[in-house]
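Input/output pair, single chain:
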Amino acid sequence: MSNVVLDMSVSLDGIAGGAEPDADGMALHEAILGWLFPLRSWREQQGQEGGEDSVDSRVWGTDFDRFGPQVIGRRMFDFGYPHWGENPPFHAPVFVLTHRGQERIDKAGGTSYTFVTGGIKAVIDQARAAADTAGDGKDVLLAGGVSIAQQALDAGIVDEVRLHVSPVLAGRGVRLFGACQTTLRCVEAIPGERAVHLRYLVG
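Output:
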């Protein structure tokens, strides 16, 4: 059975996103994720040329290659969908946790968006079933945002946590772990030039 992996970027003080989808929240989002934008592996996924071939780029590329289906929240979808275009960077089925169901959307390059209204366990079950049906050994990526990451951790359905710690002190925003009681065991730490990359097993 495929694993469910939470893979997110956080600031040094544990912030993973803004409290509101406003201009200030967008600035915070860019500060936390800014380490990604110059990387060759990230730029290739976006259909762009060039970029840095660094430790960070290799870590991101290796991480991304291990994933098949992805799970995201509705707010992340609503923000990103206009920018992801007709050939989105996922190249895999994407399952959107939402209160507002709608018909599946198919895009080029193997990306599809399926809208799941049954809660965090239902959306993870559908993504995991898609991964197991594909039979390519790839894991499920829980990509965010913060709310569904917290729901999945609280529900005990995350097998592994990958954190990319950006060297910024946000001072505001939403902490990834908050009141979460999950026990994590660090099994890998890779210092990069733009972020530190940590891998934890859950439980």
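The mean pLDDT is 93. The longest helix spans residues 120-134.
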